[in-house]
Amino acid sequence: MVARRRLEAMEQNRSKLIAAGRKAFAAEGFAAASMDELTASVSLTRGALYHNFGDKAGLLAAVVAQVDGEMAARAREASAAAADGWERLLAEGAAYIAMALDPEVRRIVLLDGPAFLGDPSRWPSQNACLDATKRTVAGLIADGVMKRVDIEAAARLLCGAALNAALWVAASDDPQSVLPKAVHAFRLMAEGFLLGDR
């Protein structure tokens, strides 16, 4: 019973720290966010942060994973009304790119994430996106919609194109004007995988 309560308390502390980190990183950016202020805002200590995440970058990784997971879910929701699997794939990519306009996504995932955590293609949340795209690509090939191509290669190119387009939009001085260019180019690139005309 005591062990279970301790685990529950640890999980609550972890959730509090992720929420506080998310708020601070979105508002101030990773570099400017104070660990003392962040932990004090949820009545915890630096020790709790170190225990749960190792360091501030570990907390950022947890926040990025949470936000990136939400991005993937939002992209899937945005594609739900598409007419078929191919249009869903394109709609998901376009929705992911468009999320670069969301200030929280822009700051945490697209600007600070790569700057402080390194190559996004190595993040666990991006690997989940890659796995989902591989399943979609495999289905589209089996249905005769996409050309016969290595499934992993196609999935990596599609995911990478969407991610890099989002990074471009986020880093742009004029994201609103860059977004339609990025989405258009993503669609044109993806159409190279089509088998025949659509």
UniProtKB/TrEMBL annotation:
SUPFAM superfamilies associated with the record: Homeodomain-like
Swiss-Prot/TrEMBL keywords: DNA-binding
DNA-binding region per UniProt: 34-53
Alphabetized InterPro entries for the sequence: Homeodomain-like_sf, HTH-type_TetR-like_transc_reg, HTH_TetR, Rv0078-like_C
Transport among keywords: no
One Pfam short name: TetR_N
Domain HTH tetR-type: 11-71
Name of this chain's protein: TetR/AcrR family transcriptional regulator
